[in-house]
Amino acid sequence: MIKVGDKLPSGALKEFIDVEGNGCSLGPNAFDIEKECAGKSIALFALPGAFTPTCSAKHVPGYIEQASALKAAGIDEIWCVSVNDAFVMGAWGREQKAAGHVRMMADGSAEFTRATGLTLDLTAHGMGLRSQRYSMLVVDGVVKTLNIEAPGKFEVSDADTMLKQAQASR
Q1: Does residue 143 have a pLDDT over 80?
Q2: What residues does the Thioredoxin domain cover (predicted)?
Q3: Strand 128-131 to strand 119-122: parallel, antiparallel, or no bridges (unpaired)?
């Protein structure tokens, strides 16, 4: 399992791009994790699934609400990672009004999630292999803080905890 001091796994995450430009085409675009993290401080949070109750009502909205404060604390980008495809993540981002605040990053085949060791088997609930709920502060591709939730909990991966950690790391 990934831990503080480790580099993020190599590979790509996909993001649905609504407006063509800056070298990105309309629709799903793959982004190299190492290149996207280079020289940046990223608040990355992951969750079991798009449009699920806690994720939609608390997790994503909290990061959207705290986006300005996180950026003032030195965070360059906020990423939401879920084992969903880029189309679903794009639709969820539009529904959550995440544009300009949170990048909705798709890990459709759970490659990133498996590489971190933070998988959650929800097969019994008809959801297959998913991500555990967690957050991490990543600086230049290296994990500086890691907050993994206990099963069924939402206590340590929230935006307020990340904001305190970002402020303390300055």
Answers
A1: yes
A2: 2-168
A3: antiparallel
pTM: 0.94
CATH number at residue 36: 3.40.30.10
The answer to whether the CB of 119 falls within 8 A of the CB of 137 is no
Domain count along the chain: 1
Distance CA 62, CA 56 (A): 10
162 in a structural domain: yes
Q: What is the mean pLDDT of the chain?
A: 94
58 domain residue, yes or no: yes
37 is catalytic: no
- The answer to whether residue 16 is domain-embedded is no
- Interval 45-102: pLDDT, tens: 999 999 988 989 999 999 999 999 999 999 999 999 999 999 999 999 999 999 999 9
CA dist 112 and 107 (Å) reads: 6
> Helix (H, G, I), strand (E, B), or coil: what is residue 163?
helix
As a whole number of angstroms, the distance between CA 71 and CA 95 comes to 22
**What is the amino acid identity at position 26?**
L
pLDDT at 163: 98
The phi, psi pair for 72, rounded to 5°, reads -65, -25
- Residue 53 inside a domain? The answer is yes
Per the residue annotation, which of 24, 37, 55, 80 is the catalytic one?
55
Q: Could you tell me the residue range of the domain that residue 129 belongs to?
A: 29-168
